[in-house]
């Protein structure tokens, strides 16, 4: 975390106003985060980091802002979301964009969480139905003032929210504009600030890197876009990557700090008297390099209770470089728990659901929640062989999809092979006696059914694996998530546990057919 310059000097690159007087400069430092996804251990570290940021440089020498770009929470678990809400207050963030995972929470619960919020939730491209719980709780923009300097802060939600959130009251009552309308809304807010004489303007965007580049190029008067949603890592200041040009030829700085709170950013800026950035320095740092502090740890435990010790891990395979398109033996325990604890034939867990891994040493219930931070209800579904194959094929297409999304299915009760062209090559059902039965992936049966454990996000069309409308194959819905099943399952296992690679998913080269 660096609050000093030498930063990138933008004076010669972009047009500057001609003046006979020596210009006055304003220096600002922005501590920013995005896409924490409810990772509580990283929140504890980020709290400590935020306090270091507070004291590193005196606030009278540099305006200091703390801003977030959405997806701070994840899933529906009220207590976990309360931790995230309190983290935002404790760390002193003034605002966050509305992310798609903020809309995981049903509006009545979200409204309750925000009653004591000291930060604003921003969505200039959001409309909320009148009289509903979140009516009046989402703001388009606001003015933040430091040392007499005014900053216009705007926020936007993701235009693809309907594809990223399971169907609930949030998407029925809260509406997000498409990207074209969003760009117009951003410009309207900029123009309002300009009319007030405010010329330092920041956008908190949960719209993704490609849309953020469009917004930078198609608006006038925007200085900074603190981005999120697409999980890019944008370190330093690089022309054409995150140093962009606005519609009127002025510099726009774009940031993103990856996902899961693994990194955080500090953006140092110098503005001239006309609000144009003349110098910039953007630094990303790794959150795990900082320690969790006891006061915040105890405060979190005051909300969640003390974690339960479950077992010891003796050995575990390395974590894959790209969890979305790789087998991940670390997840086998969790999908096995889903299948065995619910007594189903098969369990499916989308790779995007996993945000951590097991390490050698003690495992407690907090670690399980960190590995699977989405808090969605478990379901048992009656799934035809054809529906199963179609869903797996949605995942295998991730090899050729942008960003490798939505990701493969981790499985229990199945083994399958996928090639690097995103094609499902073969599939085997493993029954409870460990016998293998081949499923014809080119002509799966519509009249053969399996009991399948999954979460309700997947079962109701999340990420497009199954039909978006509430499918009639759901037989039973539970009021708990997979982390409860994993904890119950692990406690029955003989400790210490060795996690082994069982080759449940094999990836082969599309040309040679050889494993990669």
List the helices and strands and how they pair.
Blueprint: E1 8-9, E2 26-33, H1 40-56, E3 63-68, H2 78-91, E4 95-97, H3 107-113, E5 120-122, E6 126-128, E7 138-139, E8 141-146, E9 149-156, H4 161-164, H5 169-173, E10 174-176, H6 179-195, E11 201-205, H7 209-218, E12 224-226, E13 243-245, E14 251-255, E15 263-271, E16 277-286, H8 294-304, E17 309-315, H9 332-342, E18 346-350, E19 361-364, H10 365-371, E20 378-384, H11 385-396, E21 409-412, E22 414-419, E23 424-430, E24 436-439, E25 449-455, H12 456-459, E26 474-477, H13 482-492, E27 497-498, E28 505-508
Helix pairs in contact: 1-2, 9-13
Structure description:
The chain is an alpha/beta fold and 516 residues long. It has two domains: 29-289, Purple Acid Phosphatase, chain A, domain 2 (4-Layer Sandwich), CATH 3.60.21.10; 307-508, 5'-nucleotidase,  domain 2 (Alpha-Beta Complex), CATH 3.90.780.10. The chain is built from 13 helices and 28 strands. It has an eight-stranded mixed β-sheet, covered by helices on one side. Helix 1 runs parallel beside helix 2 (78-91). It starts with 7 loop residues before the first strand and ends in an 8-residue tail after the last strand. The relative contact order is 0.13. Mean pLDDT is 92; it is low at 1-5.
Could you give a short description of this structure?
The chain is an alpha/beta fold and 516 residues long. The protein contains 13 helices and 28 strands.
